[in-house]
Q: What sequence folds into this?
DNA sequence: ATTGCGGATAAGCGATCCTGATCGGCGTGC
DNA sequence: GCACGCCGATCAGGATCGCTTATCCGCAAT
């Protein structure tokens, strides 16, 4: 199971085409065909159905492993590359949409005030892509958001040695269309909404399986899927009655056309966590330190 | 980064020798030397220090990824192999030492009573090896034990799609030598023992980093290391005053020469979880069903 | 100084992995 | 209905890779 073979395997199923995958990877169609044949010979079972191109059951199994494997391979390479390459004048931050709130933006501002001529790039992507970017070295650090019980960490797939650090906690809110019966409430119980219509916007809002997990309940069935990282588009869908979504209250309150109602039960918060590799680059470490001391100060003030 | 290269890389560092690794892998020493050279050329930095053979900093980074990568590669292969191979007359169960208690043994007995001529093999290994065995298809299912807050799941590294299921919960106990000042107590607070002498027996007893995690405290410094899966040996070490260890109360109470004192705070339990691949073999599914219905019955009885 | 151990290097050969060319099956448009 | 186009399979050939054998080199102990 050569990584190259795995790579063309996922490319083939991504493109639903051998020749398309070949073009994308810079191979000939012949090579791709041979790659798939080699994989199938190695594993002893047909992996992709041809014409139309689709995964067989065995191929579906492999698809659950291959992307994670390839990502971890990149992670290993990036981990080592970080050891020699040092460019302390550039900081790339990957960020899920709802994580880029006042806390993160403020910390970045402080960092730029402290550091002269720091070239900062903020990249807003989906939740999974944040992790992938950090792990593969395309970003120095990342901010991921999600819902969890207070002081519980967010669950992260382990893609190698990395550290997480709570960066911000806000109350969680549900987005309602303005004319919704519950829109005027002061608070809602999430467990009352399991049968409501929800928007599956796992890149932008809190993913539905996460809601299921924190409520320990089934339900939260998606009615429409929203891809991309655009909070306003999500709000527009909710406003038009396509379904509900969960976001941090400060973010939700600022969105037009919708009502944001805090979640009162179960007791949980929206938290954003900073995630960085075990051996971060210099400016990344600086931002981490900054957020840690901030947090310490906040804790001290609370007492 | 060919998996073969990674495999010889970890073998070289395991054996602390090129020629030793070559013998173990069935290569010549020359091939191993070339493998390492190829890896180093690919990653652009020296990975192992020669004479004596030891990992460089970059090599240490790679060592944090390579075993996980190789394991997941095996997992993918095993996942697919499970699809065709079907031998419903044999069941291999991997088990960490403290997990093999009355509940698990009882469930296995029930299964054998129900199923005619089922060839059962129980393999007791360290915690990590249980996961590895299940994931790589060397066992149909596994039982892992650990300490956690009540109804919290044990943290598991994600090595692919698998399912966990709580199999048993027991109170946690600390092993003391009989003449220890605390040996006569009815209960102890774990957080009072952070500075005590502990045995690092991560395969057999609850690992110390797990204790640190559930106590949210540093400490639990190891004074002696115990490898292997032998509970009596661990008890002997404790009896001789080498240090403390944490085990489920029923198991601990049966050990000779020591005193087992329940843990009263923080509120936590020793739990053993069943873990099986997303597509289990037939007898594995049968055991899972058996434990699920048992559990349902127990829950119903409790009400 | 010599010898032995352990890793590096060189040469050679078979296997592997690409490309380009061709074949074959299937759906489509005229 | 037929020819064509699309797409994947297969084949042949050349470059490269990866292993083995043989030899070299540096270090340490005697």
A:
């Amino acid at each position: 199971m050569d990584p190259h073979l795995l790579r063309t395997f996922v490319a083939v199923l991504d493109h639903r085409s051998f020749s398309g995958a070949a073009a994308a990877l810079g191979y000939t169609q012949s090579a791709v065909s041979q790659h798939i044949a080699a994989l199938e010979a190695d594993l002893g079972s047909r992996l992709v159905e041809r014409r139309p191109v689709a995964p067989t059951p065995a191929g579906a199994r492999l698809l659950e492993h291959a992307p994670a494997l390839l990502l971890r391979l990149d992670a290993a390479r990036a981990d080592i590359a970080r050891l020699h390459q040092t460019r302390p004048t550039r900081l790339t931050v990957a960020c899920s949409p709802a994580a880029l709130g006042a806390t993160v933006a403020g910390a970045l501002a402080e960092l730029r005030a402290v550091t002269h001529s720091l070239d900062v790039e903020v990249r807003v992507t989906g939740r999974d892509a944040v992790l992938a970017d950090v792990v593969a070295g395309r970003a120095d650090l990342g901010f991921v958001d999600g819902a969890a019980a207070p002081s519980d960490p967010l669950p992260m797939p382990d893609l190698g040695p990395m550290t997480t650090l709570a960066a911000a906690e806000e109350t969680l809110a549900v987005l309602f269309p303005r004319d919704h019966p519950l829109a005027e409430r002061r608070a809602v119980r999430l467990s009352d909404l399991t049968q409501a219509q929800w928007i599956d916007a796992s890149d932008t809002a809190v993913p539905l399986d996460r809601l299921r997990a924190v409520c320990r309940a089934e339900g939260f069935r998606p009615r429409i899927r929203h891809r991309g990282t655009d909070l306003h588009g999500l709000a527009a869908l909710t406003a038009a009655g396509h379904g509900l979504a969960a976001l941090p209250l400060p973010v939700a309150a600022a969105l037009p056309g919708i009502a944001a109602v805090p979640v009162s039960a179960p007791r949980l918060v929206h938290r954003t966590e900073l995630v960085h590799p075990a051996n971060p680059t210099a400016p990344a470490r600086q931002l981490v330190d900054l957020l840690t001391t901030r947090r310490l100060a906040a804790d001290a003030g609370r007492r």
